[in-house]
Amino acid sequence: MASYLTRALNGDEAVAFAVKQCNVDVVSAYPITPQTIIVERISEYVANGEVHTEYVNVESEHSALSVCIGASAAGARVFTATSSQGLALMWELLYIASGLRLPIVMAVVNRALSAPINIHCDHGDSIGARDAGWIQFYVENPQEAYDTIIQAFKIAEDHSVLLPVMVNLDGFFVSHTLEPVKVLPDEVVSNYVGFRSNVKVYVPYLGKEVHAVLDGITPISLGIIALSDYYYEFKMKVIKAMESAKEVIKKVNDEFKELSGRSYGDGLITQYGVEDADVVLVAMGSAAGTIRYVARELRRKGLKVGALKLRCFRPFPTDELIKTLRGVKAVGIMDRALTSGGYGGPLFMEFRSLFYDLDEGPEMINYIYGIGGRDLRPSDVVNIYHELLDVAKGREVSKVKYIGVRM
Amino acid sequence: MSLKFHELPEVPTTIKLSTEVKTGSWRTFKPVIDQGKCVKCLICWIYCPEGCIVWDGSKVLVNYDYCKGCGICAHECPVKAVTMVTEGG
Questions:
Q1: Pick among A229, A230, A231, A233 to test the B interface (most B CBs inside 10 A)
Q2: Is the domain of A251 the same as that of A275?
Q3: Residue B14 and residue A221: Cβ atoms within 8 Å?
């Protein structure tokens, strides 16, 4: 295990610090609250000559991700960061990045979407990008933000994955909260992530394989037209890559444990007290810490409750979740995003669908919370756990609940 | 040709080099340089969006394999040395 230094960093600074250590060639990003500190710190590192990174200034997020796509297609290791409206403006490029199989890493500091305008946290921005073909992590604190950025480059660039990775951190709750963060020495991280190695494709014209990147010596085209004859197959390759990403995420989680002593469950989910729990709450992001805290307090009083953090939302850890939750009587799904007109939040739908085929699956209740940065208090979570314990005993309650809203 | 899933490259790329695709066949008008009028200023070389103006060491030429016939060179030439001629005409 490598030595470490403890620094006081907020979530944004922790992300920037990790990027500094990861041999990133190109960064192009446009500042937006609450992501701003990330771009500020990275541009300072560039201006001070602390990194070899080229920082490209742009006039919008659409251009920022376009620059990243071009640079990544040329074989560079690339990073960008955004929030909310910025992510919305990147929309069409999100699908291009994954379709071209470019291992771009992006930090998304979760912020509610307008209107009305809001700068505080909910997951509506990144959950909306659910189907864009990006791997999505949701981190709980600045330490996990730092660790996950480093892991993200390893995962994205693995030749069995080759997908862009979104590392989501809760706006303000994580991005602006100063915490002690254990950082590894520069050379340890730099050696671990190494430099990007490019995948090769076979070119019949040359009778050999060439790197699938843009260069003038063997000029190939990327993302050229594929209609009803080939489009489906290339999108199917993204589906397969998402499936193989699960094993890579687990592997990188293990490698990182060797390096730092820290790991996050199996890399996909982390659990507290789930083994013998009657009821379990599931959350992503900073709320995972709150539910774990409350679960610990309640277990001291003898209540059999558990807490599960979904760290990786895409790929969705299907088998792992079924294995972990199948014996539980009631599961509460915490959604920090809205789907107006749907039956419950996005996570709820995903969980219900996953457990539908089980003969004796857990009862599932949806708790929608924290919209637009509304606080989730420990007392709210205590009430939720008590309700779930009642549901486990057979009480009927409405399936979809909005927590903390004035009605 | 209908390649199967496993025969396709992992990255959606062409299976031949871009240089093999002779985009000059798209052309309707062809730029013809009057070497007598040409003053070798190479303004056409600066403006050509396709990189099809070639300096061979003594005169300015056009790479007709990739020139799409947009006519920008003819428009920009300060001495009107480039004429756009109908292809096959």
A1: A233
A2: no
A3: yes
ipTM of the complex model: 0.78
Residue A232, domain member (yes or no)? no
Pairing of strands A26-28, A78-82: parallel
Name which CATH class applies to B22-86. alpha beta
Question: In the Cβ-directed half-sphere of B62, how many Cα atoms lie within 13 Å?
Answer: 29
Spatial distance between the Cα atoms of A203 and A291, rounded to a whole number of angstroms: 53
**A85 and A162 share a domain?**
yes
Which residue, among B3, B10, B11, would best test binding to A if mutated, counting the most A CBs under 10 Å from its CB?
Answer: B11
What is the token pair recorded at A230? 């080939």
To the nearest whole number, what is the mean pLDDT of chain A? 96
Closest CB to A224 among B2, B8, B14: B14
Assess contact for A10 and A143: CB atoms under 8 A. no
Spell out which residues of chain A touch residue B16, defining contact as CB-CB under 8 Å: 203-205
Contact A245, A135 (CB under 8 A): yes
Confidence (pLDDT) at A2: 82
pLDDT at B1: 61
Q: Which token pair is A381?
A: 């979570």
